Amino acid sequence: MASNDTNLTTRPSVAVHAPGTTVSGADSANASVMQLRDVSVYYGSYEAVRGTTMPIQQNQVTAMIGPSGCGKSTVLRALNRMNDPIPGARVSGDVLFHGQDLYAKDVDPIQVRRRIGMVFQKPNPFPKSIYDNVAYGLRINGIKGRLDDHVEEALTKAALWDEVKDKLRKSALALSGGQQQRLCIARTIAVKPEVILMDEPCSALDPIATAKIEDLIFELTNDYTIVIVTHNMQQAARVSHYTAFFTAEVDEAQERHGRLVEFSQTGKLFTNPADKRTEDYITGRFG
Amino acid sequence: MTLTNNPPAAKPTLTQRGSSALGDRVFSWWTLGTGLLVLAILGLILITTVREAWPAFDAMGLRFITERVWDPNPATGDAIFGALSFAYGTAVSSLIALLFAVPVSVGIALFLTELAPRRLRGPAVTVIDLLAAVPSVVFGLWGILVVAPALVPIYQWMHDVFGGIPLLGRLFGPVGSGRNFMTAGLILAIMVTPIITSITREVFSTVPRADKDAALALGATRWEMIRGAVFPHSFGGVVGAVMLGLGRAMGETIAVALVIGGATNITANLFAPGNSMAAVIVQQFGESTGTFTAALIGLGVVLFAMTVLINVLAQVVVRRAEARMKGSVA
Ligand SMILES: Nc1ncnc2c1ncn2[C@@H]1O[C@H](COP(=O)(O)OP(=O)(O)OP(=O)(O)O)[C@@H](O)[C@H]1O
Ligand SMILES: [Mg+2]
Predict the structure, then answer these.
(1) Taking CB atoms and an 8 Å cutoff, what residues of chain B touch A76?
(2) In sequence order, which residues have a C-beta less than 8 Å from that of residue B49 and are 6 or more positions away?
(3) Into how many domains does chain A fold?
(4) Which domain holds residue A259?
(5) What's the ipTM?
(6) How many domains does chain B fold into?
(7) Best mutation site among A41, A43, A231 for ligand 1, i.e. most ligand atoms within 8 A of its Cβ?
(8) A69 C-alpha to ligand 1 centroid (Å)
(9) Using CA positions, which residue lies closest to atom 17 of ligand 1?
(10) Residue pLDDT, tens place only, B172-211
(11) Set of chain B residues whose Cβ sits within 8 Å of the Cβ of A187
């Protein structure tokens, strides 16, 4: 099964599990699937985030919170090499996935993204039918032939199946924002990554759609490890097991850098933060 | 005037139009006006050309488009004006042009938007745009003096190798001077590449970053990203670019007149000389009178009709394909 196979340098012919099987995780709970070690991210000469060290625990939800511009998205995108296409973007330090450095020379970023998927802030379904949105990822992952079962499974897991099962051939762009976002989640889980990165997945949604996605995130931890960026502290408190609080610091040269201030279990971070800045932020006394 | 006598400023009612409505009205009249103007000019061109061509249409009837013979000065009997051979030449040379120009243009456009390092993009675009600035008579002269003679040995080789294949071999028949359908198509391909490239490049660059990110985050390779996110987004625009290129190729006059060989000819052999409607008009207009002149204008009408027809067809195709690709919206 792919979860035990840490080879990121080659493309397996079939990278997706057979339908019906799940990635077992309960037994390995609290093992860290990813580990950031002194990770800094640069845009050109600008060091956007400085020296981040934190683990990502398996089958747990890790939340990243902090004020706007402190580098949450930047760190998140560094976790599956989504910064690669940005000209000038660069990462130093180690981003380890099952102990393997994602930025090592022989690592194929395409393999990385197949194992570590991403859901974006703004729902971004392809201008294709609902069915083809989910099928696209399956096809590029080498699944051939009838994809109906895979598509249904993914849409069901994303709690969208009942709403769309009669209009799979309709354009995904005709769905509501919340449905589009669940479609994007379905599209991501269809290719069965181990880790799903979510960048403010609910920020464009109303409270009901948000609640649906939060329930979904909870469900997904059976099979997946989740990292979620959110501006909503209640959301972080509700859905996550661990929370990382970032803030922006101004250095001697008057440059702002994102810094990880505190990482701990969510309950502890919100009730008994170790750092004064965390406390100020979560109690709303932030600058 | 006393302050107390000031009437209260009238509150606008909801049914009343604000001053901004004037701008909206002007804008909508203006766009409607320019739209109608274009239609009127098109109509005017059609009416006047049909009127000028009428003597030929009248004399030939439907044979004007079904007849392959074009003989303005027969030894005996009436002149015969059949547009079919030239319509064939226009179609074949333009198709060859698209066959070469479209893959090349789309390739260049993809390279420039997705692959090329940023500092290479500007210069590359300039070079391609320069190609568009070369006057068509220069392309024609270059074709007749350099390209056609240079291609003869290659045509000969293709004839020797593929000529024997049943059916397909008929495309690669005996080679003459090098001035033929193929050479005309190749010169046209070079001439339409810049316009197709620059429009497809614009179209590709409008694909949202979010769509490309979505594909990449699913583990798409660059090519899979292009197929999954870039093409569905730009299909309609690319077809539009191709249609503009096709319009240019079908209407190209002087370059084709110089390199197509100037024969009234319908043949599968791409290495045989032929002629196109636009080329015939420019070659023969000076020496024509009366019905002959009318017949040449008639060629123009047929060309115009063909272009319009193809554009309408293309729009139907785009709408169908987009509905299939993107899923129906309703
Ligand atoms: N593509 C980019 N090029 C250059 N600088 C960037 C780029 N993306 C982000 N930055 C800079 O990096 C810093 C961190 O940005 P980032 O988007 O990671 O913040 P964030 O914590 O996600 O903010 P928000 O909560 O508003 O989404 C900011 O100063 C931003 O200006
Ligand atoms: Mg962000």
Answers:
(1) none
(2) B297, B300, B301, B304
(3) 1
(4) 2-10+18-124+198-282
(5) 0.84
(6) 1
(7) A43
(8) 5
(9) A73
(10) 999 989 999 999 999 999 999 999 999 999 999 999 999 9
(11) 214, 218
